[in-house]
Structures are given as C-alpha cells and as structure tokens.
Amino acid sequence: MIKVCKFGGTSMADGTTLMRVRDIVDADPARRYIVVSAPGKRFGGDGKITDLLYDTARDVKRTGHVGAAFDKVCSRFRSIVHALGLDLNVEELLMRTAEEIEREKSEDFTASRGEYLAALVTADFLGAAFVDARDVVKFDKEGKLDAERTYSLIRESLKGKRRAVIPGFYGSLPDGTIKTFSRGGSDISGAIVARAVLADLYENWTDVSGFLACDPHIVPSPEGIRALSYRELRELSYMGANVLHSESIFPVREADIPILIKNTFRPGDEGTVILPVSKYRFGGNVVTGIAGKKNFTVLLLEKSLMNTEIGFTYKVLAVFMEHGINFEHIPSGIDTMSFIIDSEELKDGMTEILEREIRAAVNPDSLRFFDDVALIAVVGHGMARSVGTSARLFDAIANIGVNVRMIDQGSSELNIIVGVDNCNYERTVRAVYEEFFKKKE
Ligand code: ADP
Ligand code: ASP
Ligand code: MG
C-alpha cells in the first residue's frame, strides 16, 4: 500500500503544525511520499511565504537585490528550524537562496523557493530523502507538463527510498529553468507523484475537514460532502471551490487513484473522498455542492436570424482567438448569443478592440457588455435524476428578489450555472444553499 500525502500551506505554517505533519506521517507506514507547499498563514492577516516571494521578485526586478519581503521569508524559516531543533545550517541555506534569486532574476524561480525550502526542512525533520521537483517534474518547451517523462523520472528517483519529501508547485523546462504551476499548484504536484508511483490513495491534507457544500466564508459551517466524483470536483473547483486545484484530478483520474481530503488539525475527521463516477455511490442529495466566482463580463450579441447565418459563432471566436481571449461559457438563444469572460481578460482597452472587431466580423443588431457579473455553479449527479431542480433553484433566487442575468446548463445535467450581479453574489449563494441543504425532504 502506498499513499502520497500533500500538505498545504496552513499545515506547513510553523513548527507546531509541522509536528502535526510528522505525527500524521508517522501514524501510517503507507504514507511514504510527501509533497509540501510553502508555509502559509499562521493566523488571519499573516503573510503567505509565496506572496512574500512574489514581492521579493518585484524587489529584485526593481533594485537587483532581495529586500524586506525576503527578510520576512528568512525569519519564518529560521523560526521553523529553531522550533523543530534541526541541525540544518539555515543561515547558509538562506544566503545561498538569496544569491540564486538575485542571479536567476526569474519570478518563477523566486516563487518556487518557498516549496523548495519547506521540503528541505521537512525532509530533515522527518529523516526522509529530499527529491528536488526540478529534477523530476518536467515541462516541454511550450510549458506543458511532459507527463510520461515526469512519471518515469519520479519512479526512478523514488526507487529504494522508504520515505521522500518532494516540493510542490514547480518543475523545470527543457533548458533547466524553473517553471511553476498556477497558484495552488502543489495540489497538482501531489497528484503527479501519486500517478507516477501508482499510489493506492492521494491524501490532500489541508485546514478543513474535506469539501464543504459551499464556501465557508459565505455560509457559516456548511454541510460536509462525504464523497464526490472526479467530474463534480472538477466543476466545483474550477468554479471557485479552491480546496483543491481544478487541474489536480487529471493525473490521478488516468489511474483511478482516489483522492482523500483531510484536515491536518482534525485528523480523526472523515474528510471527503473523490472517486471515478463508476465507483461513486449516489449520496441522496440532489445537489452535491455550490461554488462561484465574481468579476465576469457578459458580452451579449443580438442579430435577427443569427441561427441561419452559417459561421456566425466561428467569426466571433476568430476575434477572440486573435487576441488570446478565453471565455467560460456561451449561453445562446435563437437570435442571441452571450460570451461569459473573466473581466481580467478585458483590461487595457480590450473591450473596445473586441467591440470594433466583432462589429466588423458579424455586423450584429446589438452588441453590449455587462460588467460585474458573478457566476454560481450548482453541481451534482443527483440533478439529472430529479425533476424540478431548476425550478427550485430559480424560485429560491427569485424569492430574494435577485435578477438572474444568464443561465447555462451543462449538457450532462451535472451543473447549472447562473449569473447574478456581483453585489448579490453572497446572498444568492446563501439562498441556494438554504434551498437544497436546509429544506431536504
Ligand atoms: P491549502 O493551503 O491546504 O492548499 P487552501 O487554502 O488552498 O488550502 O484550501 C482550503 C481552503 O479552501 C479552506 O480553508 C476554505 O477556506 C476554502 N474553501 C473554499 N470553498 C470551500 C469549500 N467548498 N469547501 C471547503 N473549503 C473551501
Ligand atoms: N505555495 C503556492 C501558492 O501559494 C502553491 C500551493 O500552495 O499550492 O500558490
Ligand atoms: Mg491549496
């Protein structure tokens, strides 16, 4: 039996939390491969090491040298090493790291040092081997994970090691330079290691007792979710339930490796297990979970007989492609089509450019942008089984007097996505939660 354990930022935050990590790892000999994040917040308002390192990268760009933010990084690591009573020469390590950061002048390199240092410290503390992600997690020259090469390098380097610690969040490009995943990417690293060694289980240790039915910052103490399918997880995490990075399912799904989300601070709690649909048993709830994100823009196009105009969508998409704009959804009617775009994509005059070029490409009767839209996803395999889910959803939203700006239902009936004004986001999530989790028949 092999378990790969990933510990998130809060689990790595200080000496006390690292002692918990050691107790968890020691409690089960199957917990052989440990993937770690950089130390996160110790308390509300505290800094995350990764954020401080991004500040450091900015300092280096501006002045050529690490600055005050890096001093904070150093004192965090110093105090961890001190609290754990390690022999590790932390001063030398931090000095070398500062020199390398100043020499490399790369944002990704700088940001990756939180995981690198955390893994070195953890390996020392656990008496485990250290395997640098730079040597085993490989990207191709386009920056895409070279999965097969990565899996075989990981297998090779872990062979014969009873226990090893691997930093999350980064790997290297063909020229050896460091590249990070997007934020929260240590979850992906953990999944990659689990897939490489064909682990029986990928344990993801965090600061909540598993996936909750919605964001605990919006609904106090929402219900826990015992089991999720990979597909439900993908929908919920993509739509903002950031317990687990939305791309972390891909490596484990290939090999049907279950993910178990556990709480480092309450290790006895059951947590949430994530399984392939085939192994997943319907839990009885119509809706499994609710997630959402703010700050989208809706581009609404109207044109009579749009449905008969061959190539209409293609021409609009060509404009998006030309400018490298991603969109999230395209809900459409007979003579209308909307594009839901993350508002971040439309900075620096992009709205005006799109307006001009789309008008030239398809000559719509009307073209309008609506800003400040929040998307809320209601997700669950149970929705396909029960009649009237959408009526319940829209009634719940109408009852609080909120206007629905757009609706999109996935073709597999796994999700319904609604758009509301940003200012109504939290109360809409609360109303939907009330409807599906408090009024159970
Ligand atoms: P880690 O540092 O361990 O990777 P994250 O901060 O990335 O942890 O993810 C855990 C956090 O996700 C929780 O502390 C919680 O605030 C937040 N969260 C958002 N939505 C949910 C949800 N639906 N269920 C559980 N936690 C959620
Ligand atoms: N430390 C990185 C971040 O803060 C990666 C991670 O924690 O997963 O985004
Ligand atoms: Mg995370």
Description of the structure:
α1 (15-26) crosses α3 (68-84) and α3 packs parallel to α5. The chain is α/β, with parallel strands linked by helices and 441 residues long. The chain contains 14 helices and 15 strands. The radius of gyration is 24 Å and the shape is globular. The protein has two domains: 3-207, Acetylglutamate kinase-like (Carbamate kinase); 289-438, 2-Layer Sandwich (VC0802-like). The protein has helices at 15-26, 49-63, 68-84, 90-104, 107-126, 133-136, 147-158, 186-196, 230-238, 249-254, 312-322, 350-362, 389-399, 425-438, and strands at residues 3-7, 31-36, 129-130, 164-167, 170-172, 178-180, 201-206, 227-229, 259-263, 272-275, 289-302, 336-342, 366-379, 406-409, 415-421. The strands form three sheets. An eight-stranded mixed beta sheet has the order 3-4-2-1-7-9-10-8, with helices on both faces. It has a five-stranded antiparallel beta sheet with strand order 12-11-13-15-14.
